[in-house]
């Protein structure tokens, strides 16, 4: 354990030691570290599920897993990656970086911060353990649509309670971030001087506060429909299965932006640092982020075009969805304009950030295509959609997380990341990612539905290609583990306080690794 | 680096969060076991609740101690204000999910079920009227809950409790401790009477009206909305009771009493939810 | 840039010719309805617009990446805003979006127009098969269930997979060419989705609700689709097969079905003994029940209870007949009153009571089922 404590040498804290230190800690850096370790463990768990899925889909026919288990795997892969890997990873970044970026001594509610993290392991236990109970884990898809989710066994109830617990964690974490950003800024650190990462997280936190309770309501209704005879989603009793989809996606679409806005923030920190040029259009970046967040509340039913909603509904949700392309486009243009006439170098973080813009934007374009309702009706629930959301969630969120991890690793560990291995990680990930997910566009267009363990013969070759890519991608992620462990154990070049030549911001004014307590006396920002 | 801000209080490492986590794990897994008749469900469930209560006593006790010890300055006070506000907003969104469900069913899906092919092919003869237990032809009949008996009286109770609480607050601001204590006690009493009536109403619904959780969509929305509201009234009343004991212990000053204010905000929030409930669940 | 431009140009040209991609593995299936055609060209249009923007934006980005790097001596400029540019790249996309939304709106309005159909078919999703009821138009009254025809042995890899592996059914839907067919889509248990790519039709089948959609197939042929909404274990194994035939062939098909059902009714209209019922019931079980309750009657608890050793199966006749006819609300057990005849219900129950470990030894007569229906 000691090996991965990044700030051992500068340890000023006097609390418990050993395991108890981590269980009782109120230090934002400790908690950030735990979030990240947790999310990486969950990422590997979800990855194993993904690879099992891809192994089954390697060729037509049933070979590796039975359909019941296959559906459990797709469901839990989604839940684990969304709630266990991507979201906690971003919260980990927020914990580590926001106080240091705004010159605060810690998060506003340090004790509650601890609880936000320590609620995640119980939720993860409930989710993972559900594989081993009678009937297995829920197999209703991560969206948990009734009536299918009503048919499930007790694994479904475990997922419901896991979601409740993760929801509590997210709401507390989000409130903490909002209050920290609003109330803990150093003198002179006005809102419009804040690093963009803080802005995107502030807006993300608002989204979390607004929609996690809605998800809690939705799964509570599932629970009472399952066990207490209510009829929310049962037409015979006057309810409607589609009602669940409305409530779920009212949560679900903002959730998509919860997973991408902090990514925009990270990339907006990195591009200027390596272009050695200030971020282009800071103010418009802030407004674009806010616009995306606000629009995210009025586009939810574009996930439901095939349910057959009234004409006016289809048109409204299509138009609103198309509008999102405008602020998203502004962001991409701003990043490119930041690069323009810069003095760029391509260390590993910049590679990831550039890769992010390139591949994420491809996901953006397929998103635009999906927004056109008639086309969406054709590609809804096909591999096209699978390709689309992996382009934005893997090439988007995950790539930005890697960009951020390489960027701030020196601040966390005091060691520069190994450039050679980091670049290998990037190129392997980028290539295998595209081998895995690009063919899925063709599969979807040609008519292959998602969430199937078996498929017609004309889809065989692309599936095989995707499976090969998936295994390559999965193995490539172990390279990252190597980089982190090496740096955490004190290997590699020692990092100066300002670890990257062009890096700006308060976090680079403190030594690397950052001492256990930073900014106990607030700096003054001019 | 100049020192222009007062130092922000950062608590020492704490053992309570992990208790809370274990408590919720027990609570959740106990509930799952109970619902599915596996293992010692109720035991684990109540163990979780007990641990949660223990955690809250310890944790909040420590917060009170820190607050009384003068460790929280103006900045921490402001943090509490922001956070309570956003917490209440998250509660609003939780209720919004259920109000949204009620709206959707009454305005959209029930009319759909009663018209066009839905009626002609699937649910012949189903007519759209509220209250409804849906088109299932063999559903048992029930009598809906009227608005102008107990519910109207309950509305009056909660509105009055808002007034008594404000009166108590004025007492606190003017340092009239007696008025503060009396106002609080009156508010708690009104809340408890409200809850008593709600329990009686449920009893009455089950035994006389045949209105049950499984009485179709009406029963579902009625019980879940009023039930979650009742739960929040209970939580609010407990918070008020804690305030009362703190007042008795001499806590709070006219210029520093955010715990009291937070409780008052919460109580008013619960009030407002009830007004919406009264209109769309009982009345219209 | 010029090379990249030329390359992009040829790609655009390639995509712009739908015939180049017809029957392609890289694009939508060849459309056979006007709606599918509109979708096809909408998609081509979107692809071209996206590609042009893509080339533009990333042309600039990669130009910058190659030219403005420090290793090439680039010195950083210091600009960080330009209101004109920012306003432009906010406004121009709005116009592009309007250009996309306009044709899409027309298509949506067309897709929603289910008026004046030549015939109406009710499509019901079951776990895991499709039911078709011809409600109006020629063939009115025809009703049948459509199951996957691919043998289990092919799925398990014990046999070589056939050409139409997983997209072939025992009883395909048959419709006449050039006629507007209105579909009333619903489901019996969970949400399914009826999807035939070549028609441009995908409609979720929602239990308890009917949603309508339509198609007019302009070309005879066999068109295949699959269930597109996760519906449980055999989601991948409930395909759709539609035969679009000439008006004459369609009439012949309708007549053939009518004669067959008369013959079946005559054959069923007789005294049944236990062993005949068991034999008939085994067929019904294999066609209707086996997907959930399994070949050996073990089920998949808790969603699908075991029938082997079940107290309900071995118990009184009344509740047993009732659960098959009316289903059980809140569970996956569907109502089979519309799907199965009296004889079939009696047969399958008699079979159940005398199979595997169950040996009640009696029979349930078709008359009992008929009586139960009367209630």
TrEMBL record, chain A:
SUPFAM superfamilies: Cytochrome c oxidase subunit I-like (SSF81442). The keyword tRNA-binding does not apply. Pfam families: COX1 (PF00115). Its EC number is 7.1.1.9. One of its GO terms (biological process) is electron transport coupled proton transport. CDD domains: Cyt_c_Oxidase_I. It catalyses: 4 Fe(II)-[cytochrome c] + O2 + 8 H(+)(in) = 4 Fe(III)-[cytochrome c] + 2 H2O + 4 H(+)(out). Residues 22-526 form the Cytochrome oxidase subunit I profile domain. Gene3D superfamilies: Cytochrome c oxidase-like, subunit I domain. Keywords: Cell membrane, Copper, Electron transport, Heme, Iron, Membrane, Metal-binding, Oxidoreductase, Respiratory chain, Translocase, Transmembrane, Transmembrane helix, Transport. It is a multi-pass membrane protein. One of its GO terms (molecular function) is cytochrome-c oxidase activity. It is found in: Cell membrane; Membrane. Its main location: membrane. GO terms for cellular component: plasma membrane; respiratory chain complex IV. The chain crosses the membrane at residues 35-55, 75-96, 117-139, 159-184, 196-223, 243-267, 279-303, 315-337, 349-375, 387-409, 421-442, 462-485. Cytochrome c oxidase is the component of the respiratory chain that catalyzes the reduction of oxygen to water. Subunits 1-3 form the functional core of the enzyme complex. CO I is the catalytic subunit of the enzyme. Electrons originating in cytochrome c are transferred via the copper A center of subunit 2 and heme A of subunit 1 to the bimetallic center formed by heme A3 and copper B. Belongs to the heme-copper respiratory oxidase family. This is Cytochrome c oxidase subunit 1. It comes from Azoarcus taiwanensis.
TrEMBL record, chain B:
One of its GO terms (biological process) is aerobic electron transport chain. InterPro entries: Cyt_c/ubiquinol_Oxase_su3, Cyt_c_oxase_su3_dom, Cyt_c_oxidase-like_su3, Cyt_c_oxidase_su3-like_sf, Cyt_c_oxidase_su3_a-hlx. The chain crosses the membrane at residues 15-35, 41-61, 82-105, 145-168, 180-200, 220-245, 265-283. It is an enzyme of class 7 (translocase). Its EC number is 7.1.1.9. Keywords: Membrane, Translocase, Transmembrane, Transmembrane helix. It is a multi-pass membrane protein. Residues 4-284 form the Heme-copper oxidase subunit III family profile domain. Belongs to the cytochrome c oxidase subunit 3 family. This is cytochrome-c oxidase. It comes from Azoarcus taiwanensis.
From TrEMBL, chain C:
It catalyses: 4 Fe(II)-[cytochrome c] + O2 + 8 H(+)(in) = 4 Fe(III)-[cytochrome c] + 2 H2O + 4 H(+)(out). It is a multi-pass membrane protein. Subunits I and II form the functional core of the enzyme complex. Electrons originating in cytochrome c are transferred via heme a and Cu(A) to the binuclear center formed by heme a3 and Cu(B). Residues 20-115 form the Cytochrome oxidase subunit II transmembrane region profile domain. Residues 1-22 form the signal peptide. NCBIfam families: CoxB. GO terms for molecular function: copper ion binding; cytochrome-c oxidase activity; heme binding; oxidoreductase activity. Binds a copper A center. It is found in: Cell membrane; Membrane. It comes from Azoarcus taiwanensis. It comes from the Bacteria. Coiled coil: none annotated. Its main location: membrane. PROSITE patterns: COX2 (PS00078), COX2_CUA (PS50857), COX2_TM (PS50999), CYTC (PS51007). The chain crosses the membrane at residues 46-66, 87-105. Residues 116-256 form the Cytochrome oxidase subunit II copper A binding domain. Residues 276-356 form the Cytochrome c domain. This is Cytochrome c oxidase subunit 2.
